[in-house]
Amino acid sequence: QVQLVESGGGLVRPGGSLRLSCVASGIIVGYVAVGWYRQAPGKQRELVARTTSGGTTNYADSVKGRFTISRDDALNALSLQMNSLKPEDTAVYYCNANVNIFGKGVDYWGKGTLVTVSS
After folding, report:
1. Are 4 and 95 contacting, i.e. CB atoms less than 8 angstroms apart?
2. From the centroid of its chain, how far is CA 59?
3. Torsion angle (degrees, nearest 10) of CA 112, 10, 39, 35
4. Are 29 and 97 in contact (CB under 8 A)?
5. CA-CA distance, 40 to 89, in Å (whole number)?
6. Cβ count within 10 A of residue 93
7. Are 32 and 75 in contact (CB under 8 A)?
8. Exposure of 55 by Cβ count < 10 A (0-12 exposed, 13-18 middle, 19+ buried)?
9. Rounded distance, CA 119 to CA 97, Å?
10. Model confidence over 52-108: pLDDT tens digits?
11. CB 36 within 8 A of CB 96
């Protein structure tokens, strides 16, 4: 059974930083594509950052240069370092793993952690 558990969300002022973590069980994060998505109130869920097992990483244009995704294979975890936060970064952030099962990509999601950027 795959489980993804996020932590690290909270309230931060504009310009501040937060670090989100996602601990995985049932999968090995180093072997699958993992990433972070977010969903702001009234908006669709969108990709924030993603990294593949081969090390290819991509970011949403809106977070490039401010956010960094990383894996900790020893802890079987995924992190998102968020710097220079803006009010428009306010959203629920979800950890995602895309697992290849018999040739088909299956998405697994955490329950999300709320990030609020406000003065």
Report:
1. yes
2. 11
3. -60
4. yes
5. 8
6. 23
7. no
8. exposed
9. 33
10. 988 899 999 999 999 999 999 999 999 999 999 999 999 999 999 999 889 899 999
11. yes
